[in-house]
Amino acid sequence: MSSREACRIVGINLRTGKRWRNGRAPSGSEVGALPITAVAPVSGPSRFLRENDRVRIADRLREKASIRQIAAELGRSPSTISREIRRNRTVDPRGRWHYRPHAAQARAEARRPRPKPGKIGQNRELRDFIQAHLGLRWSPEQICRVLRRRFPDRPEMHVAHETIYQALYIQGRGELRRELARALRTGRTMRKPRRQAQQRQKRFSTPMVMISERPAEAADRAVPGHWEGDLIIGKDNASAIGTLVERATRYVMLLHLPHGRGAEHVRNALVDTVTTLPAHLVRSLTWDQGIEMASHGSFTLTTNVPVYFCDPASPWQRGSNENTNGLLRQYFPKATDLAVHTRDHLDAVAAELNSRPRKTLDWETPAERLHKLLTA
């Protein structure tokens, strides 16, 4: 088409259009514009939309093409095109929007440079909330979920848990106090690859009922009252604390073993603990094949609670208990004497764990779930 018609469609003056087409000759110290020439498209795929992609989007929008049509032509997801238009469009004072490709490109390039100021560092209220709950040994994911529940209409108080991890681990950001990293489950101040699980203790040699014979209602966690148990061991294998976790509610109870972890000591502690609960909340107990359960027959006769044993080297069959033991290591580190902890201290630790919101409970606490069962 003619220059006049092209300028009319683009919406510019004819003289400007000719200058764009032909370039402008240098005048004195002024550098003239270069003539427009055909630019070869950049080869190869790209994560990001390029300028020629944005020009294509603008052209097809003027032609009333749908988002899905544009996405198919560019080989992109429809959500990518929709997000691009929503984020980089221009809105006039009347509230009407226009998609201008070169302005969109400039916005995208201005948004891309790193590093950017972190969200936690810019919001004092958010930073104080996160630091306070890290001090209570909450995980970053627990903190993020509670933030969304407590401040549903304030997006400036919403962060992803990865944001908290980066604020702790990445040096130089200064958004969270460095020492708070030690309040995390692992206590690490930097990230490490996930380690393989340790081998379980040697098998239990006396006759036992295996987990394959456990009722199906225990496996699907539909009925409360099925418990998983284990010991966490102290320095030189000389002391221990027993742990019980209810499978449906994740409620935790700790066994006080100040005189050792022999079979009789463990049996007596289990009997004392189980008898404090209503009968309908103690239906079975699942344990590994440790020698501390040598008196499991006597325990069953006394309490009428059957004991089921896991297969050798199969910690995932008591997954809730294994997870809880990891949480407890924040309170009872390895290679320490566990006999020094009093009954009151164990109860306080259990109460703190039972008051934490859990993802698997739809962010309710184990104490809240158990209370519902007791009052139902």
What does this protein structure show overall?
The protein is elongated. The longest helix is centred in the first third of the chain and has 12 residues, at 51-62. A 6-stranded mixed beta sheet has the order 3-8-7-4-5-6, sandwiched between helices. A two-stranded antiparallel sheet has the order 1-2. It folds into 3 domains: 49-91 and 98-109; 119-183, no CATH class; 209-375, Nucleotidyltransferase, domain 5. α1 (3-10) crosses α2 and α3 (51-62) runs antiparallel to α6. The chain has helices spanning 3-10, 14-22, 51-62, 67-74, 78-88, 101-111, 119-122, 124-135, 140-150, 161-169, 216-219, 263-274, 296-303, 319-328, 343-354, 366-375, and strands at residues 90-91, 97-98, 209-210, 226-233, 240-246, 252-255, 284-287, 307-309. The chain is built from 16 helices and 8 strands.
CATH class of the largest domain: Alpha Beta
Calculate Rg over CA atoms: 32 Å
Distance between the termini: 80 Å
- Percentage beta strand: 5-15%
Q: Quick one: CATH superfamily of the largest domain?
A: Ribonuclease H-like superfamily/Ribonuclease H
Number of domains: 3
Looking at how many chains there are and whether they match, the oligomeric state comes to single chain
Briefly note the structural class of the backbone: alpha/beta
Strand arrangement across the biggest beta sheet: 3-8-7-4-5-6
Order of helices and strands: HHHHHEEHHHHHEHEEEHEHEHHH
